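Researcher: Dear colleague, please comment on this protein.
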Amino acid sequence: MTAANVVHGQAYDTLTLTWVNCGAAPSRIVSNLYDTSETLVSSVAGVSSGNGYYYAPHTLPGSAQWLVNRWWATINANTYARSQFVEVQEMRV
C-alpha cells in the first residue's frame, strides 16, 4: 500500500471522499464504503462541485477498522471504478 492509496479518518467523523474526472461528465457516479467482508457500509451519490470534481460525504463507523472506498462512474455507457483504502481510527484521549 502506498500513502496515496490510504485515507485516514476518526470514528464517527464525516469523511469527504473525492473523484476527479477530466473530460466528459458522468451520467451516474456513486461512492461506496465496504468493510473487510465486502459488506456495504455506506453508499452516497457523488455531488458535483464543478469542473469535473465530485465529492461524497460518508459518516464513518464507530470502531477502528479498515474499509475500501470504491467509486463507480458511468461515462458514455462505460463503467469506471476507482478504489482506495480507508483506515478508521478510534478516538482516544
Remarks:
- The chain has one domain: 3-89.
- The longest strand covers residues 78-89.
- The CA atoms of residues 16 and 57 lie 4 Å apart.
- The radius of gyration is 14 Å.
